[in-house]
Structure formats: structure tokens, C-alpha cells
Request: fold
Amino acid sequence: MGKLIVLIVLAAFNLILGTFILTGKCDNFVLGCFHFSSTKEEEKFNIGRLRILMGVFLIILAPLYFLLSIEGAKWPGYLFSTAVWTMLIAYYILVYTWAKK
Reply:
């Protein structure tokens, strides 16, 4: 029961944060996630595209938590981590190709 509550809280947090990011209310958070050392580096990226990538990533991640919580599901942890790592690799490839100006 405790595991289910934690997974529901994580999924809800991802949905809420993803929604805030997509609406543009967390642009400083998005820029802060990349640790830009100067404004010149910030200007190399399109904040709108970064916002879309991060928001969609978080919203896609939320249902994966629910798949972990289903009793009797054949969705072991290593498949979850494989899915997350694959999404992260695709995310960073898109950040440094599609989101660059």
C-alpha cells in the first residue's frame, strides 16, 4: 500500500510540474536544469523548445509510474529503468539538436 501511495505522488508531481512547464510558468526552472554558466550559452537554446521537451518528458513519465504500481503486471523494474534511460537519451539528443538555435 505504501508503494502505491509513493508512486501516485510521484506521478501526480510529474503531471503537475509538466503542466506548469508547458504553460511557461517555470522557464527559470527549465534554464536552471541545464546549469548555463553565462547568458551567451542561454541564448544558444530556444526556451520554447526546451519547455516543450521537458514538459512532454515529465508528462510521459507519469503513466510509467502507474504501470509499476499495477498488481500482477509483468512490468519489472529493469524495463522501467530501460524505458526511462531510453527517453533520457532521446531527450538530450533533441535538446542539443532540435532545441538549439
User: Anything to note?
Assistant: Residues 2-97 form one domain. The chain is about 75% helix and 0% strand. The mean pLDDT is 85.
